[in-house]
Specification:
The protein is α+β, with helices and mostly antiparallel strands. It is built from 14 helices and 12 strands. Among the domains are: 110 residues, Alpha-Beta Plaits; 105 residues, Chitinase A, domain 3 (Roll). Strands 6, 7, 8, 9, 10 and 11 form a 6-stranded antiparallel β-sheet that branches. The chain has a 4-stranded antiparallel β-sheet with strand order 1-2-4-3. It has a two-stranded parallel sheet with strand order 5-12.
Length: 438
């Protein structure tokens, strides 16, 4: 076997592996023996059919399997002898091998570029002190009261913050908007819909949201909405639409009272217990925020401290992951897919930039882990499986089964755990400046 290595870039190489004719013949001979023992031909007992008959009858299958075996042997021996640190196989090429002839396989691989680790112990970070004030506690309790608020029907005109049930009909130059914009009914006609009067961040028609303030049940009013020139719905961009409002009901939001029933829903006995539990929850949340801030500062410091070449396949794979996650989030929020097409180049470049930073950090953390002897222990694996089960709303056994069936997924799973463990190690070694009061 002859092996040559061609450099394409600092992170991409081509292994040119040539198997001698006798090696190819030996592989075919072994393969023919396996086929002969396993196939059935009329008139012959298993394993007794003539080799030439087996070769003719299963020529295509034998050729495909021989090519696979030769390629596998070329890859294994090529990587071993060349001592190339393979990150991913990008491609494999070569003519179908034939017994009695040498076979050449060209294997394109991305490799992990060698680099010098930056200083990673004692990195300076600055975080806000995880302090929970009495005002924080009272504000959180008020949020709980608002979440459990009642909505009481009132006969008075609507105030800002009230919830108003209404019908409205939009017309543009006398024509119903619902006929012009058929896929966005919120801008055309709505019946028995609810609006929070005067809400600053509410989606929908601004003139309707503001127009219901001061109206009571039974009132009617016409308001005008002039949409901006760059409005997301082209048919309405720069146009003035009249909306006829009909108020059906007004409800006032009344926060839940701090009484026994309220405490019972939160599984506490009184206000003092509620305050203590809220304080503990806030403390835990702030500590998580502090840890997250520390991790972000460490990530920026590590990525900014060294430069080295990255495998293109790693960047491209992670770019697609970043894009997919972003698009899924945007679609869930109701953003039309057509918007992505308009910005596809911009979105791709942004995703690639984020992906490059992620891949770079991965290589740095894995090299730190190797240097420090950090490994994924059974306890680490168990804890991450439990977390995944909770997030995916699955039983831990289902996660374990998937990992057992897919070794590639298991390797990715373990690598992610090791990265997180290593990042926590570096954060733990960081030099934290005096806490800044919140």
């Amino acid at each position: 076997m002859n092996i040559a290595v061609e450099d394409v870039s600092p992170t991409r190489k081509v292994l040119v592996v040539t198997l001698a004719a006798d090696e190819v013949t030996a592989e075919e001979r072994t393969l023919l023996g396996e086929f002969s023992r396993s196939v059935r031909l009329p008139g012959f007992r298993p394993g007794k059919a003539p080799i030439e008959m087996v070769r003719r009858r299963y020529a295509r299958e034998i050729s495909d399997e021989l090519q696979r075996k030769v390629a596998n042997k070329a890859y294994e021996q090529g990587v071993k002898d060349s001592k190339v640190n393979v990150y991913a196989v990008v491609g494999m090429d070569g003519p179908p091998p034939s017994a009695g002839q040498e076979a050449t396989v060209k294997i394109t691989v991305d490799v992990q570029a060698d680099f010098t680790l930056p200083e990673y112990q004692g990195l300076p970070i600055q975080v806000t002190a995880a302090v929970v004030s009495d005002a924080d506690v009272e504000a959180a309790i008020e949020d709980l009261r608002q979440q459990r608020a009642d909505y009481v029907v009132v006969e008075r005109p609507a105030h800002a913050g009230d919830f108003v049930k209404l019908n409205y009909l939009g017309t543009l130059d006398g024509r119903p908007v619902a006929e012009i914009v058929t896929d966005r009914p919120i801008f055309g006609t709505q019946n028995n819909t609810w609006e929070e009067a005067g809400a600053a961040q509410a989606p929908g028609v601004r003139a309707v949201i503001d127009g219901v303030v001061g109206l009571k049940a039974g009132d009617k009013k016409t308001v005008t909405q002039t949409f901006p020139a760059e409005f997301e719905v082209p048919a309405l961009a720069g146009k003035s639409v009249e909306y006829a409002l009909e108020i059906l009901e007004v409800r006032e939001k009344v926060a839940a009272a701090l009484n026994e029933e309220f405490f019972k829903t939160l599984q506490v006995e009184n206000l003092e217990q509620l305050r203590e539990r809220v304080r503990q929850d806030l403390q835990s949340r702030k500590e998580q925020e502090v840890r997250a801030a520390g991790r972000e500062q460490v990530i920026r410091a590590l990525n900014g401290a060294t430069e080295f070449a990255l495998p293109e396949s790693a960047i491209e794979t992670e770019t697609q992951n970043v894009l997919r996650d972003y698009l899924e989030r945007q679609i869930r929020q109701g953003v039309p897919e057509a918007e992505f097409e308009k910005r596809k180049d911009e979105l791709y470049q942004g995703a690639r930039q984020a992906a490059t930073a992620r891949v770079k950090l991965t290589f740095i953390l894995l090299k730190i882990a190797e240097k420090e002897g950090l490994k994924v222990e059974n306890e680490d694996l168990h804890q991450r499986i439990m977390q995944e089960a909770v997030m995916a709303r699955q039983k831990p056994d289902q996660i374990v089964k998937r990992l057992q069936e897919d070794r590639t997924l298991l390797a990715q799973f373990q690598r992610t755990i090791l990265q997180g463990k290593t990042l926590d190690f570096v954060v733990g070694k960081a030099k934290v400046s005096a806490p800044v009061p919140a």
